[in-house]
Design goal:
It is a single chain. The protein is mainly β. The chain is elongated, with a radius of gyration of 17 Å. The protein starts with a strand and ends in a 15-residue tail after the last strand. The relative contact order is 0.28.
């Protein structure tokens, strides 16, 4: 059983049959709508008895200041 915490998948529970193998260490969720696409990444934290929690990864700051430009 896998639980998603945070982001658009918050609260979703997935029952993953053993025949599908181990869950992926990171899951990417892409939301397409009328505006720009929105991407969320979830990182897996495994728990006992085949359970795990996917926690949304904090968004990186995309507007880094260019240090090469003089003020």
């Amino acid at each position: 059983m896998l639980l998603f915490v945070g982001g658009p998948l918050d609260g979703r529970v997935e029952i993953r049959p053993a025949r599908h193998g181990d869950p992926l260490p990171t899951v990417t969720h892409v939301h397409l709508h009328g505006g720009p696409k929105v991407v969320h990444r979830y990182d897996l934290q495994t728990l006992a008895d085949g359970a795990g929690v996917y926690t949304v990864r904090p968004r990186a700051d995309r507007h880094a200041r260019d240090e090469s430009v003089a003020d």
